[in-house]
From TrEMBL:
Belongs to the truncated hemoglobin family. Group II subfamily. It holds the Pfam family Bac_globin. This is Hemoglobin. It comes from Sphaerotilus montanus. Keywords: Heme, Iron, Metal-binding, Transport.
Length: 146
């Protein structure tokens, strides 16, 4: 079964739908960036981002909308995500990966109550975060794209 949303067909069994659609993804993204801003343990990954996280939050929301099976907002606006290529200019090492995952794991724990869905999303994020690692040296880290 599918629902139509913003000229996009969204499967009722998609992650997007199972999470609760756009409001739930906004809540996840907002909580994720609040944690990144507040947790001292996320200092290294936070400093890769601009002072305002609004642009980053908007990009992540749009990306996750499509990645989770909802409207492909990011692709419509910016084309293929090419995540690794877009992040290539920025030093992302194990520390940044782990700090990013710390924030995402906590946001998921607070926002996703279905254990199987939570575990599947966390594994997918973990794989993506590992794929973004492009260095072991974090001494030359600079700002992250919005």
């Amino acid at each position: 079964m599918t629902d139509t949303l913003d000229d996009t067909t969204v499967a009722t069994d998609s992650v997007y739908t199972r999470l609760g659609g756009a409001p739930a993804i906004h809540a996840l993204v907002d909580r994720f960036y609040t944690l990144m801003d507040e947790l001292p343990e996320a200092f290294t990954v936070r400093r890769l981002h601009p002072d305002s996280l609004a642009g980053s939050a908007d990009s992540l929301f749009k990306y996750l909308s499509g990645w989770f099976g909802g409207p492909p907002l990011y692709i419509r606006e910016r084309g293929h995500p090419r995540l690794r290529m877009r992040h290539a200019p920025y030093a992302i090492g194990p520390v940044e990966r782990d700090e990013w995952m710390l924030c995402m794991r906590q946001a998921l724990a607070e926002q996703v109550t279905d254990p199987a869905l939570h575990d599947a999303i966390e594994r997918a994020f973990s794989d993506m975060a590992q794929h973004m690692v492009n260095t072991r040296d974090t001494s030359h880290a600079v700002g992250c794209p919005r």
